[in-house]
Amino acid sequence: MRLTQNRKFWIIPLTFALVGILHYSELVGIPGAIYPSIHFGLTRHSLDRTLFLIPIIYSCFILGRKGVLITILISLSIMLPRAILISPVPRDAIVETAAVLGVGLLASWGIWTRDEERDKTRAALAELESAHEILQHYIQTAERNEQRQTIINTISNLLGESPDLERVLKRATHMVSELMEAEIALIFSADEASQELHLVACEGVSDDFARALDTIRIGEGFYGEVAKTTQPLVVDDTSQDPKFALPEISGMQIQTQLIVPMIVKDKIRGVLCVAARRPRQFTLDDIEMLTAVGTQIASDMENARLYEKERLAAQRLAISERNYRQLFENASDAIWVHDLEGRITAANEAAGELVGYSTEAMKRMNVEAFLSDESLNLSSQIRRQLLAKKPVKQPYEQHLARKDGSETILLVSTNLVTDDGEPVGFQHIARDITEERRRQDSLRHYLSQITQVQEEERKRIARDLHDDTSQALYALSRQVDNFTRDNTGLAPNADAFLKKLRQQLNSTLEGIRRFTQELRPPILDDLGLLPALRWQVNDFEGQTGIGADLVISGTERRFSAEVELTIFRIVQEASRNVSKHAQASKVEVKIGFGKGKTKISINDNGKGFDLRESLADLPRDGKLGLAGMEERVHLLNGKMRIESELGKGTRVMIELPI
């Protein structure tokens, strides 16, 4: 449809029509036609065959390659019937027809080739022009970037020349005003804590102007708005900011301002402003240039702030190191440091006095010189736990060999020493507890002896009560029974008195029997701990009315008579405390036999009590029963822990290494 609307297209069919009529003139009734071809020495129809080149070549310009092929086929369909059917010399006619078509095809190919070369030349010229424009743009951009980088480097070098940031920023504002060809330059620093901007440097303004803009809230006015939005701002009308109505500011006659944020690591560090006292149109390059300069100034300000912070930190660190050195050297506790191989690198005087060597001599020694095999194994275990960043129970006991061969007991705290996160050694802080341990051992032995004497005395009293007092009361009771039976004619008052006396004797005898069992239950000596505890729990429930249970877990085993007696006394004292103070309705005694240890717990649902942080405060609070239990636990080298909360009962937990 579009092709038929093209006027140039209709020239082709019109030409075909005219040449076809001319080619078949005698058949269409044109008598006496004179053919111009006879003047060129050609056969009669050679010229009109040649005329078919006109539509073929013309179609090359109008229709392209497909059009040429179509016109060649049309020309062939017009010329071929005459050449075969009408021409007196068909062979020559066919040859002429083929020649005409071949010439047309070659001519069209030549035209195509020329057009393609011309198009390629034009495209190459267009690409060259585009590349030239791009190159020019890059050159201009590079020149601008070079200029910008030169200025930024100059300002950066300027800021790095002196630690006096205030003086350097003053020079920077002068350079910025010259760079931007502006009369005024301002630098504000942002205070993140107070959310305020502070004028730190200015150029081209009066002191009154600087004082009036010394502090601005972020989000307030032009400068505060840029700090809040972090977007550049071009101000052509200063009347929109109320501050510019102040005489100190309006007197500067500022008409145009360019304000950009100073951002470092996505945080606002301040704003940079250039201003002119005349109308001025700031370009995009001006905004980019001032933004780059502001970023560099902010970065250098941040670096200067960090440098000052590091300088102060280094100063404080030097003071701290000096104080630590004095503390290290003058500490009453022994302190020494050694590397990962055990070579001592530092030691204080207390450490030297502890082992009997000078500090200089210790620095040439290895810690293995002070440790026995057992102590070395403990030290290796602590070392592995610290290197693996596992928790270590500290302080811990360690035994060291002194220069004179004696052994000292230390309470040691060990810390891992690192450098840039890598372990380089260990620091030990130790206190000599040899004498304290000896006193504790003596006191424990003394308590053990006292406890043994108490138990022997309990046993003697129980035996005396059983053998003497109980027997005498029993005999007296039998005599009263015999007297009553032999004297049946007693007065009613006398008979009632004898019955009451017999009841009192029996009650007293039962009390003595119970008291004797509490002093030294025979079942403990005869059958052992667990039967004695079962008797104790049942007797407790019967005497107090408080529900009591005994729960045993693990494989039951026997202990020595002293150990079983101590455990029995602990449970007995705990039960007595429940009955006296807890106001409980239920108590449970648990004994768990484990591998190498035995756990005992006594739980009640009573009123509980306010527990102090340390069990050492129990005697001071009047809880002598609990204090006695703890002493007995210590005699067995065990540990006791108490949990109690008001209204939620009490739980006593004991762990014995037996």
Structure in words:
- By secondary structure, the chain is of the alpha+beta class.
- It folds into five domains: 7-127, no CATH class; 162-310, GAF domain (Beta-Lactamase, 2-Layer Sandwich); 331-432, 2-Layer Sandwich (Beta-Lactamase), CATH 3.30.450; 433-520; 523-656, Histidine kinase-like ATPase, C-terminal domain (Heat Shock Protein 90).
- It is built from 19 helices and 16 strands.
- The chain has helices spanning 11-23, 46-50, 53-62, 64-86, 90-161, 165-179, 207-212, 221-229, 247-250, 284-330, 349-355, 359-362, 373-387, 434-486, 492-519, 522-527, 529-544, 561-582, 624-635; strands spanning 184-191, 196-203, 215-217, 233-235, 256-264, 267-276, 334-339, 344-347, 396-401, 407-419, 422-432, 547-554, 586-594, 597-604, 639-644, 650-656.
- The strands form three sheets. It has a six-stranded antiparallel sheet. The protein has a five-stranded antiparallel sheet with strand order 8-7-11-10-9, sandwiched between helices.
- A hairpin with a 2-residue loop joins strand 5 (256-264) and strand 6 (267-276).
- Helix 5 packs across helix 10.
- The longest helix is centred in the first third of the chain and has 72 residues, at 90-161.
- It is elongated, with a radius of gyration of 58 Å.
- The two termini are 111 Å apart.
